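Lay summary

Proteins are chains of building blocks that fold into shapes. Our project writes down both the chain and a compact code for its shape. Here are two examples, one after the other.
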Amino acid sequence: MASSARSSTLASAPAVPTAVANAIETAVANARATATANAIAAALALTVVLSAATDAAAAEATHVLTAVEKARPLPELGLSVSFERATRAADITREWIQNAGTDSAFAADVRELRYKETVQRLLIGMRVGLFRDLEFHATLPIVLQSDSKITFAKNVEATSTIIGSANADAGCDVAECPAELEYRYPITNVPAQRNRSGFGDMTLGLSWSPVVDDKDESYPTITFRGDIIVPTGATRRPADPSALPGGGDGGIGLGQTTFDLSLGMSRRLRTKVPTFDPYVLLGVKLPVATGTQKERGYEPPVSGRFVVGTEVIFYEEEASSSLYGLDVAVGAEYIGVGRTYSELSDYLPNFDQTRLVDENGDGREPAQYADFANPSNYVSQRDGAICGILSGVSCGELNRVDDHLNLTGSLALRFEPTRFTRLKMGVAVALATNHLLTSESVGKDADPASASTAQCEGTACVGRVNPKNSEGNDERSPYYDPRYDAPGRRFRIEDALTFTFFATGAATF
């Protein structure tokens, strides 16, 4: 297998030594904590510097429609149509143990897959002024295309750890397999793709500007915004056969209610054109899964964001209310840990280790090669389906995705020939920091402290995850797949880059 620059040659390696696994977990945790702390500190510092340096009429980002004012007694009404086309590409690597069974064993990330995604959507927007600098707004997204595809990375197919080679399949008789090769059972089909489209989740919200700088130049414009993103779209199901090529189109909704709260500030510099109208935006998204999604184990991550930017106004005429300018912005979004949709959600099988039982009906561990070949051990079963080499099982599951940052930048042209019409078009780029896509824990020890002397299968119950603990409960996670959730075998996304073109036409009355 061809490996990334920091990876060594792929070695056959099987069981993950405890010391190596602990070292991997410690290194990842320390790196994650350091990177997150540095990123948050930098973001806060940059926000303070920029807002203090140019706190100086409201930028488009903080503009709110109004009503019941002397100049505008009737409610202002705004209608808009936006088009977006986003293309995303990334490398997917996998941890793999090198020099297994020796004191020099270590995990390196080896190249596995190339991921590509194309999303096109229309956004139908409506805004209406309710009172003085208070507006109601709504946005309906129509997803025209949401296609994803995985292929082998260059020169990887013959040695892939996913399917089609000895690294991916131990080729054991299902009745017996060496312990160090038990996890080597083909995972999924490569290449593969999914197609989705339809109505997305609608946004409803209020924006309020208690202070507007063109009314009182002593203060910047301050805008509070509260949105609710409601689950109006058909929920995306990772194992949905409709998302397969030729199967129609799978659902695109997230199956969650999201509370999106944000604060924006802007202040235009009181200089002749050309001039600047800088702004700062801070926001947080708090998602709550629907009941059905909770039953699937869906735990959407909380996210926080900041954006700093400025409008460069290079032409303005008050008589006709015409304005032409350029909008430049950079930002970052922190996305927390969650069991959610990942780039591999449509392609990984939904193995459930809690279905493994012995002849007495009691839970057993660890999973063996034959267990991965048994369709009854998977949640998503469907006649005629194939996932990897396994018949009767549909690919698709939610994944425990590590926390990460999305770093963003955008450049847009703003045209307002009259105060009633507006056209904006531009490009944006986003880079996601490298992060794990499969990091589900094996389970959680739930034994009480009073069970310190209790034995589970001849071993102390406390301090480990048991198929049957001191209280008779199964502590194993039904979402854990030892083939790719165990340290030393996990999938990671790297160099995830998204390019977006967008255009908006709007009219205000």
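And here is the second example, written the same way.
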Amino acid sequence: MVESSLRKKASFSCDRCKQKKRRCVREGGGNISVSLDVAQACTECIKSNSICHTSLINRKQYASRYKCQLIGNSNISSDKTGPIKSILLQTLKKLVPNIQLESDADVIGLAKAVGVNVDGIVQQKLATQSFLVDSLGHVDIQQEQIVKDDNGDPRLLGSLGTPAIHNNILELIQKPRNPEFRSEAASNPLESPQGSLSSNFSISGLIDKAKAVRYADIFFENVNSVFICVCRSEYEELVQKLWQGETLSSIQSFLVLLVWLLGKLYIIEQELDTDDRLMSIYKTFRDHIVGQISVKCSIIGIRVLVLIAIVSESVEERDLACNLFKIAAVQATSVGIHRDVFHQEVPRLQKEYSELWWTIFNNEVRLSNIMGRSSSIDLDDVTISANFKAHQLKSNVCFYESSKLHQILYQFLKFKACNLQNSLILSSPDAIENAVQLRQKLLTWRRSLPENLGDIFNSKLTELSYPQIFLHLEYHYCYINVGVPFLLLILRAVNSGKTVQISKDDPILQLAVSSINCSKQLYNIVEYEFENKLFNGSVHTDLYILYHGVLVLTIASILLKSDKCGNIVDTELLDRTFGISFDKLWEVLGKIRKLNDNLKAHCFGSATMAWNLIDSLLHDLDGFINKECDDWGSMLQIDQNFYDPLSMFNISTDGFLEFLSTQANEGFDFRVADVVR
């Protein structure tokens, strides 16, 4: 037992009492009840025969009576531990010949005499372990999830899977005179190149060196600045080996090929020829490479998965791109690059792996939202940051802010999974409150942007970068996602024929208005790109993001053109307060149609598909608005035109009519001031 003068008071109850929300009481000397005594076990833990401790560092609480239990459960008899103690005592006597060692206390006294901080060592050791006793009385010592090994890299393999343990066993069982049998267990399979795919897979001589350098420069300047997934020094090392005639593995060769291909795709303004060699080899070996990467995790394999996903999204295979980012996310978490302990002793590697992880996260969340799916990532398990203060380039700051923005979009996916399956749930105060809180988080994010990133229209072109432009596109796209479900609710209410006025202060109206205004802002950004020759319609997804804005403006136009709109929304108040009217929206749609015509020559792949969608939608809307007919169509017709099973607009809203039919003091007496505190 620790002397009372040496005891320290803990600041919290033990874990078991804290979990059961009860007072943690310990019995002191003379049957005096005391609380928060680190030396005594609490009464509840004594009753349950459990170790009394708290998980906070330097505040673990142990009772001396359990020391015997730990020794008893170790299944090591005293006759076996005797020789070990004897050897340890003899070793210590050799170090300090004049010391008398007859007990454990003498050993601790020796350590203190030579200046060893025993308490610090013990606390540091206990900080990495958690002692639990199960119902059978067995002691379970839980290690950290990622084991850091001196002879290798962090793994999720457990202590027996680390290279150091393997090497120690080899040193024990192998004789020094047989070094040829020693295994190379300390090598890192995560960084090692994978085996060759086939003898005829080679990119040597595929393109000349001048084109390779040009494509690589374009890739790292324009593509890798947004999708940060390839380390340039690693690429240069691979290319140097290629020019020297060395053989690269299939994964290494495919990474170099993808860098060239994306560099070429970025500058192309028409569809690739069918005999294009880069695209031909990519299509031939892509599926085999993906299969090879899927069965064996490696860092370079994860990089290749990300690059293939980028190419897939640019050539009208967005569903495949979403699946590949999900596979990359699973492999990245299994390797452990989402944890801050992974290579934290090497800042360069930590920065590279952090950028790779957050690129995967941002795009997995973005594509999951587009495809109407849930994210496969557990954000609570992510501990690595995207912020590196030592690398405050504008592209790095944009990347960090983009990661924060996609964490809000990740929360929206959680919100959508819980609330958009049923319109009654969507109409509930809790759902509306959650949506308004997401809107408030987006506003807070926007206001916290650095001054040099806040305004793209008044920035000098020489100082403006595409990551900054794309950051604002993503922001308005996230805003649309939060507000458009409520715009659709109002649309269905208008077509119901009911008469229920929505005031300007209602959060439902403000969320719908936000989606409309952000859709108009998407047009302003894309037009600014085109006028200043910053638009890219091959690799980047700007036009596809604008297409979602056109969808929102189309729905809003149908809503405002209907004679029934006044039954739900005061259109004059909407124009006077928010600057939204049918004529103003129709003018914006006309500008978008003109811009879309100008962008046709600059589109390729997925951008061409987005161009066709915008063109056909605006053409059909023009005929729909101009036809002389009082019947604006049933909701089923609107669903067929604007709903898709994989769209972000795929929600059920029938129950909203019942919600609108309630009295104002029962339903819409729920103001923004009540939820934004």
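What can we say about the second shape? Residues 4-142 form one domain.
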